[in-house]
Design goal:
This protein is an all-alpha fold. Helices cover 79% and strands 0% of the residues.
């Protein structure tokens, strides 16, 4: 006896939103695990953002595609990750100098912290639009311009980073899945900028 074809089941509007939220949290766990290599965080965010773009575009995707994207993004992304740690170390030295009471130290420390925030936002914006074959150098240059030209979008990403920091303050393990929400925020900011 032949069975009737099964209709595709559609989620309600609220159900679809919850599914995207759940996917963000799962992606945050994947990003955290992929970032354990210390210099692999740009590639992890790029793979996570690409995964979320696929899921919100109803193109499928899963852990296998995330891993493949991560490996591809890692080819140039490890150097970006290493440079990010160098920038963070320079800012840390600036902050230590500011605390030591050097003349002009507080101003230099504040400028350093704001510069670090700008670099992190540009990195997240670059990762949000990454696709296989893209040059990290070109992505970062374009993302740096967008960071300055779209201050509202950049502020939204900073707020997302603030949520991660607050989550870690309240319950440290909660910061892991929230990383996916930061990747989703960066993807949304880039979509918003593209449609302006």
């Amino acid at each position: 006896m032949a069975q009737a074809p099964v209709k595709a089941r559609r989620l309600s509007f609220g159900g679809e939103r919850f599914a995207v939220f759940a996917e963000c949290l799962l992606t945050g766990v994947w990003i955290a695990v992929a970032s354990l290599g210390v210099v692999t965080y740009p590639a992890a965010f790029a793979a996570g953002a690409r995964h979320l773009r696929r899921r919100t575009g109803h193109e499928g995707g899963g852990l296998g595609e995330f891993v493949a994207d991560f490996r591809t993004a890692l080819r140039g992304g490890w150097a970006v990750g290493l440079a990010g740690w160098v920038v963070a170390a320079v800012v840390w030295v600036d902050v230590l100098a500011a605390r030591a009471g050097l003349p002009g130290g507080p101003l230099v420390g504040a400028v350093g912290v704001f510069a670090l925030i700008g670099v992190v936002v540009a990195l997240l914006r670059a990762a949000a639009v990454w696709a296989p074959g893209d040059s990290w150098r070109a992505l970062l240059a374009d993302a740096g311009r967008r960071t300055v030209l779209d201050p509202a979008g950049s502020f939204l990403i900073v707020c997302g980073l603030g949520v991660v920091a607050l989550s870690a303050t309240f319950v440290a393990p909660l910061a892991v899945p929230v990383l996916g929400a930061v990747a989703a925020a960066a993807v949304a900011v880039e979509e918003r900028y593209r449609h302006r």
